[in-house]
Amino acid sequence: MTVPTVKLNSGHGIPQLGFGVFLVPPQEAEKAVSEALEVGYRHIDTAAIYKNEEGVGAAITKSGIPREDLFITTKLWNDHQADEKPHDAIRASLDKLRLDHVDLYLTHWPAPEKDTYSHAWQKLIEIRDAGLSTSIGVSNHLPEHLDRIVKDTGVVPAVDQIELHPAHQQSDVTEWAAANGMAIESWGPLGQGKYPLFDNPAVIAAAEAHEKTPAQVVIRWHLERGFIVFPKSVHRERIEQNFDVFDFQLDDDQVAAISATDPGDGSGRVGAHPLELN
Ligand code: NAD
């Protein structure tokens, strides 16, 4: 089973399908990531605020998988955007992950009331230049935040990791990405299990047509749309199922029918609004 690679604007490749560990308790993270690595995932998405980087690091170390075969992302939490704190934060994350560099480091939220996200982006550029993260990007940034950091630094993020699933597609951000050579990562790709994606008739019809599950169809929809995706589960069967998506493809009509799910008024959002989380 071959996971496609997306080439980032840094020149480096990222596996298009990975494994996310949001809300995986610290004591369960090592087990979940070990299982994901056994199943074949090589791309892990964590964050300082998830408080499970130690478990991720333990699983990586114990796996014996060569470092160059892995793609590890972590994120700078909002309370570390100012001053030289991003440098402290990446070093703390690397210690916990037992790594000398990550593959991708992201500013987790713009937290616009603090007005330090552009400063944080400048610090991420320094972190990249110091070799502590091969590529750098952002998360939850809207076009206004992206415009500002590019104006201030001249550096386009490799990715913006945003809430994205069929019911909430954030076309303003994806259009900015397409125009500026930035990749999109979908967080909450399954609607975090909160949005009833699996009751969607277009998803069910495609699942029946391909003899796959609704979750597999939704993951495939992200892949067909060119998004980078890392669904989360702590259950072995689902970890396997979510990786078993390379023996079928959705046709254009199926992609279009699923894409039509977005109510277009933001009501499909399941997580925080980027302007409201500070
Ligand atoms: P998700 O959309 O991956 O949903 C996970 C939930 O979907 C599970 O808890 C389970 O209830 C359900 N599920 C998973 N596999 C299933 C299957 N095969 N069948 C049926 N139900 C299934 O949500 P997520 O974990 O929030 O997002 C994925 C990753 O994105 C996270 O783990 C994290 O790495 C990242 N993330 C980033 C941000 C950010 O602000 N940057 C925010 C949230 C998540």
TrEMBL record:
Residues 24-260 form the NADP-dependent oxidoreductase domain. Residues 259-278 are annotated as: Disordered. GO terms for molecular function: oxidoreductase activity, acting on the CH-OH group of donors, NAD or NADP as acceptor. InterPro entries: AKR, Aldo/ket_reductase_CS, NAD(P)_OxRdtase_dom_sf, NADP_OxRdtase_dom. The active site is at Y50 (proton donor). Substrate binds at H108. PROSITE patterns: ALDOKETO_REDUCTASE_1. The record marks K75 as: Lowers pKa of active site Tyr. The keyword DNA-binding does not apply. It comes from the Bacteria. Keywords: NADP, Oxidoreductase. Pfam families: Aldo_ket_red. Belongs to the aldo/keto reductase family. This is 2,5-diketo-D-gluconic acid reductase.
